[in-house]
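Subject: Sanity check before I submit

Could someone independently write out the structure tokens for this chain? I want to compare against mine line by line before I put it in a report. The sequence has 641 residues.
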Amino acid sequence: MPNAFMEQGSCGPDAGWAQAPAKLCAAFAAHLSQPELLALVERMVQALDLPPGQLQIVADLPGGAMAGPACGVSRAPGGQGRPALHAVCAGEVRGARRAVQILDRDLAAQPGLAEATLAAALLTQRPGAALQRLGGIFSLVAASSQEPRVVAANDRLGFSPLFYLLTDELLLIASEAKAIAAVVGTTPDPAGVGQFFYIGHLLRHQTLWREIKALGPGQCIEWQPTGGSVICYTDMARCPAPGVSPASLDEIHDALQGAVARAARPDGEETLLLSGGLDSRLILAVLLSQGRKPKALTLEHAGFAQGLDGLLGRQVAEIAGLELDFRPTRPQFYQSADALEVFCIADGMTPSFGLFISQVYPELTPALDRVWEGLALDLCLGGQHQTGATLRSNLPGLLASRRANQRSLRQFLQPDWFEQIEAGFAHELEQELARYPDTEDGWIRFQMANRKRRRVGLPPHQIYTRKVLALTPGVDAEFVDFMWSTPVQQRQRNFLHAQLLLRCCAPLAGPDVLTGEQRTHIDQITQVGLPRSRRSATLLRDWVKGLGLAPYARDLQARLGRVERAKVDALPSAMLTKTLRATGFDRPNYRRSAIERALANAERGSVYWLHALQPVFYMELWRSLSDRAALAALRQAVFTG
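---
Independent answer below. Compare away.
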């Protein structure tokens, strides 16, 4: 095998920038031979299903092997009591040069070391202190070249996905959980199943498999032959309460400008995913105020608000004088192999059939390189992220869909498996809720660590990063820390979005903005804020979801012209029925006869049974995640659009 690691200083600001794919994997064990460990990593790389040559393998490690993008593989010489290291970095780590000046001046004196290499060296010495100071969205594995010892971590807020399996004898690490599931035996986790169907995403550390965990915010892994452990160096749930003195608009403006500047390159072309909403428009305003003019990529989004999302995006691009790449909606997208690929890249951990954001991935190409995205700005600047004033008062909205899916699971699953899902979900949700104060600030932090990180953040940082690097200043740790130190009352109803937009680039305030399904004007938000949803409307919507009437309501709205048919048919009925017929749904946890009766009714056009069978559809797709032959059969027989 050719030498797989790069020379010291071969990546980073001194010799280039991080590039996609932002993926890595690694295997360490004391009881396995080097050829066995190398074979494990090769199988994990194969499971990631990337184009050939995209990842390089580091094979000559004591007790391990690992793989990562060519620009993210480096080594650091030893000296001054430090071991020589091999490092693999996926994504972009920033701030290592500043951190090393504080934590290790001897290391800082060594010339030519890249940011990721410096970060890896700090990680092995003082992991908590180093990770508190590092910025960017990254996953990093640092392994000693002299002894079997490894430290692995991701960015402080945990937005770069990093999954692991840790036993007394073995450590497996990967950017996608399926790479681990492909090389070890796994069993479904009922708690993860419940989270998927009851809240639409996985909680902090959960996956769909019992044996595999997601590294949470503020955590890192340390391993050596005597054992390994997950270390918590900071806890988002235990951070100080917000201050009582409001920050000035100048201070907030400077903090946002800093977050964007840290993510931007000094030169080079970048692309903005531009919609009709506030977040992407605000990022554009900041970029323009810094003298940067990105290209824009806008999707038509024809099945939502009469195509207004894409229309407003076009208007903003025209005002800004941007080169716009406008992509029309693909009517058959959810029947395509692309839709199945998005689901698989996400490890099946979000209900991507029906989520518009999944349509972005096929429109991206590696030539775009770096793409701006407005992830999580609402949790920093204040958007419509809550309906109640405390953490637990927001739970009814979070659990609005639970009753309908609960009813479906009870109908189609064996009683013992259903009870495990119920008990596992309730236990894990309560455990996670108990970590946070029952306050409005607690709800915001809970949302960031869970829904934003494990659902909203999944497209840019797990899916898109196969092709491009996503730039998301809304999860810049320094910016988040500053904004969360301000009073919650200052971060309400999009006031700050509007004020900052006018401050950075007032002409962009001309076109209306789309927030949810509401169309409004920036001047109105500046004066009175974004109108809150009426409580009666919220209660009605949650009641409709809970009774399983959502598909009927959407169908009625489509007939009345309130929403497009494209949105109603996000998961076409033929896809669901064909998938179940193709897979056979013959599993010991199913009540097969009940599914067969429901499927027959669905094939006759029953809207109720089509909706009720969606959990079975997703569970059947999960069975195919690590089975290449099964996926190929689905592509050939079902996902042909």
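---
OP: Matches mine. For the report I'm noting this point. The CA atoms of residues 580 and 617 lie 7 Å apart.
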